[in-house]
Write a structure and sequence with these properties.
Layout: H1 3-10, H2 23-52, H3 58-83, H4 90-108, H5 115-133, H6 135-140
Helix pairs in contact: 2-3, 2-5, 3-4, 4-5
Organism: Streptomyces roseicoloratus
Protein name: Integral membrane protein
Transmembrane segments: 25-48, 60-79, 91-108, 114-133
């Protein structure tokens, strides 16, 4: 085996042309990223509020803040996976969108200033689901339907 052929086998990523990322996959990654950032930001706001406002139950507020931050990491990791075209990332991204729908519904039922947040969340969740179910997205992630051969 020559040194040129061994270099070809150790670094295949240098031999192939990078495939372009479909716009729908990029948009799905952006939707998941926005949702993840919103959850992390909400958790951090809750953390700061609980530490500065001593009128409530500190333990519950801290647990709520930690939960929001932890839940925000799921769509952020999924967004990164979608961006890098990892097939595993579609599952957590879809679950995030499905779980966002009842939250959006509850925000819409609040009859307060939370209604615009509910509308925005519902639009993000439905958009995310449509983008994640798109044939160009599933193809870019290497996901095929049963009975369909991988090319």
């Amino acid at each position: 085996m020559s040194s040129a052929s061994s270099a070809d086998t150790t670094r295949p990523e240098q031999r192939t042309e990078p495939e372009s990322r479909p716009g729908r996959l990029t948009a799905a990654a952006a939707v998941a990223g926005v949702e993840g950032l919103a959850l992390v930001a909400g958790g951090l706001v809750m953390l700061v509020t609980s530490l500065t406002d001593r009128s409530g139950d500190l333990t519950s507020a801290l647990m709520g803040a930690a939960t929001l931050v932890a839940l925000g990491l799921i769509p952020l990791v999924a967004a990164r996976g979608l961006w890098l075209r990892r097939s595993w990332s579609r599952g957590p991204a879809v679950i995030t969108q499905v779980l966002a729908l009842p939250v959006a519904w509850q925000l819409l039922q609040a009859n307060s200033v939370m209604i615009p947040a509910g509308i925005a969340l519902a639009l993000l969740a439905v958009t995310g689901l449509v983008l994640l179910a798109s044939p160009s997205t599933t193809e870019a992630l290497g996901i095929t339907r049963p009975g369909q051969d991988k090319a």
